[in-house]
Structure formats: structure tokens, C-alpha cells
Amino acid sequence: MTEEQIIRYIAENLKIRPKQVQAALDLLQTSNTIPFIARYRKEATGGLDEVQLRDIQERFEYEQMLSARKEAIEQSVREQGLWTDELAAALAKTTRLQEAEDIYLPYRPKKRTKASIARDAGLEPLADLFTAQDGRGENPETAAAAYVNDDVPTAPDAVRGAACIIAERLSESAGYRKSLREKLWQSAVLECTLAADEKESGPFLTYGDFKERIATLPSHRILAVNRGEAQKILKVTLRADHDMYIHMLANTIVTGPSPYEQILTDAAADSYKRLIFPQLEREIRNDLTAKAEKQAISVFSENLRSLLLQPPFPKHVILGLDPGYRTGCKAAVIDTTGAVLAYGTYHLTGSARQKEEAAKVITNLIRKYGVTLISIGNGTASYETEQFTAALIADNKLKCSYIIANESGASVYSASDLAREELPDLDVTIRGAVSIARRIQDPLAESVKIDPKSIGVGQYQHDVNQKNLSAALDSVIESVVNRVGVDLNTASPALLQHIAGLSAATAGNIVAYRNDNGPFHSREELRAVNRLGPATYTQCAGFLRIKDGTNPLDNTAVHPESYSLAEKIIAAYGFKLKDMKIKSKLEELRGKLQMNAAPKLAKALSAGEPTIRDILEELRKPGRDIRDDMPQPLTRKKPLSLDELQVGTIVKGTVQNVVDFGAFVDFGLKTTGLVHRSELCSHPFGHPLDVVHVGEIVEAVIISVDAKRNRIGLSLKQVKNKTPGPA
Question: How many CB atoms are located within 10 Å of the residue 627 CB?
């Protein structure tokens, strides 16, 4: 396909106009970032969002790869002198790489095979004779006798060699392979049996006698089966109606009664069993894995997006507690900017004397620094630390509450070069407590410092293609960071490097400039940063915020290229730019702004309506943080115990993770509860992510408690008409 044809094909598939696809590709091919295009080039693309832009980019790259492969196939076949109009037409119709490879299969240079050995021995004419199926032909061995030579000692050897050639020819039938592939996808069954002792099978015991049609296999089961197979606990087989498919293949070559009918039938069986099915089994297993990995990466990405968009606690002085038994609980107090005020290690789970000493010191810390929130890591000894904290607050009548933080990745961050650079004077264990406090204070700013695979949301993330996972998670981080925007004067290099157009080097240069020259007073100052050129400035400027700067628009998502337009809009309402710095004037302006005025303003100011709408939205809420619209995470005053819980009790909790089979909810107990997908809601839905998201606060009713297995079943759909419990 030509580039124009590819653009039309993509537009048709995505149900958008070819002009939009062309505009998006033009912008992407001139080094514009996806966040920048989605936010500041809406007029050019017709308002395409980030998801659509990534789709266009991926599909265009795939179609280019397919087109290049078709050209390579054509060149190879032409060099063999075998190119035909029929082959050209068949290749032109293909829309998938696999279909193109099926067509190329008969022409692909081959390694030494049974068929190639038979050809070298001069048996191809005999294979042609058998395939012609002359009903008056000779007995097969009589016909084969003429082909006996030094390489083929007997007539039966000649028959076998010719059959191998026929089998290979049959295996290269693109039409049959396509038909068989479709039938296998509809009806083949994945079957598992145990390859290890039951006692050693662990969670894979569930799959010891398992079978399911591949058409209905959910992604999490595919990945579970793959893991069991990789650990040599499961033996996995693809079951199908082989006799029927062999019969179908034989019917493509056997045209009627002949002396060679049995040879052709046997060759078909050999072709299917030795060449066709094993290849398609590998292909299907690979496709199942690719589909499951894509789903797992998608789920992880959406969970990460929700996690990163959790609202911050910016005005709190926070005490971070990293629980532990033998080594004690590490503690760190941070102020409202994240700076460390105090730290230490205390034994909260030790002897009565140790607990008493710890309570005294921590109470003093809370009072001395005005701690308003305590962040407790959810790892080892978390429940005991929660009990200690709750008693401390109650006994000393402290004016603070606590929250359980997901500490996944804290130890990874603590030992990283970035942590050593940020907190050089602190021990690695104390850095973990600082991270636990900071990730509650500003989840986005702290989470970007951690390898996203270590954050602890998603399913089977360590079993999927790590390159694809990293690329997907990086794009989520980039999307969220740019959507939220960052404070240019407080952001760390780890956060800045995710801003559109910036790299680790330019992010470091921004911080270095800030350290040498003091805080930025305007976005324009970015032009003075080393190696931050005009193109980079254009990409990044709109996503960087400056509070109390010289230009009030610097604290909005309005891009500097639209400042003059923003001033004209402000003037249209009878105000000046400087009025945005006066609280009363700003309130008056906000009261007059109307979103439905966008079409009229666009016409009057000769500007694009999408840009006008975005500017109006920013003028209505300058300096806003989109995360403020999200519900605050749950804080607690006292812990729950398993004894308090009964079936039918309603609990309130936070969704901790969403997977294909349901959602895990933290409601204040050491063990998270599972809401199976069947208990999420009464109406039909595609995936649990359609119903709940990470960080969402939900009410659920307890439907089962298994203390021995440490499992709690919850239901969201059964909450109505129940009595609230202790949570």
C-alpha cells in the first residue's frame, strides 16, 4: 500500500477522517510529542486525544512494516523467477503479517528437510506422478522402481521420499492453513495436567485437571498456565479434532480412486501431524500469550494511571512509618514541602518497655512538628504498627489520623542512585520511611521515582514482555504527568524528565539552573536553561507551572504561544491580565466567564474554538490541580480485627488493585478483601475496570470469611439493605 492508502485504511478502521490521520502523522513526524499534540494542536487534528494519537502511530508503523515485508517477499519470489499475477493479487489482499508469511511459505528458502533430501535424490517427478492420480497408473512400487539409485536404495524408499515431498507441498497451502487456523481458534481446547507432585504444585493445583476452549480463555488464566508450564509443574496441550482436519486436508489432494490414493492420504496425515499442526499450535500459543500480555499490560497501565492520579495531601506534616519486627520501625517526619525534619528507628512490636519508650518518643515528635497525618507502610508488621498508632492517637488525644500506604517499591527506591542523591545523609532504611510519607503527600511526584513494575498494581507483570510493559507504563506516566502539570520551582529531575520534550539531561539542567539562579519567575526564563532550545521550549512550556510568577498565565495550562489570545479573551470581558493577581478581580472575572461563549469568541478573535474553550477553562480555575476533583484517600482512627467481621457486615475501603477476575479492597484489615467480578455489579460489563478503579473508595458487604486461608470475600452489588459494620 502507498502511504495515502495506509492513511485511508487507518482512518476507516478508527472511524475518523483521513485528514485527521494525515495531520497527526505530520505532527508526529516533526518531533512533536503526543501530550503536546493532544493538548495544543486540537485544531489541526480535529480534537484527537492521546489514545487515538497512539493508535494512529502504532497502526501506521504496523502498516509500514507490513508493506515493507510484502515488498521483500515480492523481491525474493521475483528473484526465483516464480512471480505471477495471482500471487501479486493474493499478497495485495493480505492485511496481517501472518497471512503474508503463509503466502510466502512455498517460496521461502528452506533448511535441509526430508522433502529437500528427496528432491536432491531426484524424486520430485515421482511425487508429481502420484499427485496426478492416473487411475490407470502402475502399482506405486512398480512406478517407484525407476527412481532407485545410490541415494534411494529401494522402491519403498522412493515412495517414502515422494510422500515427504507431497507432505511439504500440502503444508504450504495458504488456503488450508487459513481455514484450519480459523477452525482451531473457534473450537480447539487448551488442556492441562500436572507434571509434578500435588504437594509441590501450590497454586497450580487448580489447573491439574483443566480444559477450556481457547476462544473463551481469559487472559489471567493464559498467563497462569504459562507460568505453571515454565516452572515444569503443568503439561499443556492443545486438543483438536485431528482426524477431521486430516480428512479435510486429504480431500484437497485426493480427487478420485487411483493406485496412489493411500499414499496421498498418508502424506496428508504426515503433513498435518508433523508440519502443519505443530506450527499452528506454536503460533496459537504465541498469539494467546501476546493477547494475554497485551491485556495484562493494559490493566496494569490503567491501574497505574488511577494510582498516579490519587489526590495529594499537600498541607500536611506527615510521619512516615516503615514497619518491621526485628529491625524495628523506621520513622521520618516530613514538612509540607517534603523536607525531612526528623527520623529514627523504634521498636513498636518489641517488649513492653520498648513499646513504652517508642510511644513516648513518637508522641513528642508528633507534637513538636505538628504532625497531622501518619502514613503506615502496608508490609511486614503493618497491622501491629497500625494497632500501636491507633492506641497512641487515642491514649494521647492526638489531633491526627493515619492512613495505610502501599509501600511497594519503597525498598527499590531507597537503594537507588536517585535516593542516594536526594537523601545522601540518611541510611537506606530511613529513606524507605521518607518515601512512604512522600507518596501520600504527593503520590505522583514520588511514584515516578520508582520503577513502575515495582509499584504493585496489575497482574502477572513479571511474566509479560518487559520491553512492551516498560514502554506502555512510560507512556502512562508521561500522559499523567503532563495532564496534571508540575511546579517548575519544586519538581525533582525524576518528575521533570517525564514532561513533554524534556529528557533526563534537560530536566537536570533545569534543576541546576534553579539551584544557581533561584526560583523561576516566568516560563520565558526556561529559554536560558542550557541545551533547552526553541523546539523543546515549545513542547514543554505549557505543562510547567509557576506559582506567584510575573505572569499569572504561567500558573495555568495556557501555552505561551496563546498568551496574546488569552489577554484578548480577558479584555473581551472588560479586564486586564494583571487583574488575575487581585483576588476580588479574579473572582469577578471567573463569574463572568461562560463556556458557551466559545463559538462567538472564536469568530470575533479569528481563533480556533477548541483553543478558546481550553483557555476559558483555565481562566475559570487558574492554578487548579485536576487531582483535587478526586476523592481523598481514607484515613483511619482505629484498626479492624477479623473477630469484628461477620458475613453481612458492610465495610468501607479503598480499591487497591483491579485484575481480570475482580478487585482487591483494603478496608483496614491486614488481609485485603476480594470482590470477584461476579459480585461487582448487577448489570453486564466487559472488564472490572469498567466498574471500579484503583484508589476508588467503595462500600462492600462481607460475603465470606475464611480465617484458615486468610481470605475474605466481598460484594459491591449486595450492599443495599445491609447494616453498616465497624469500618
Answer: 18
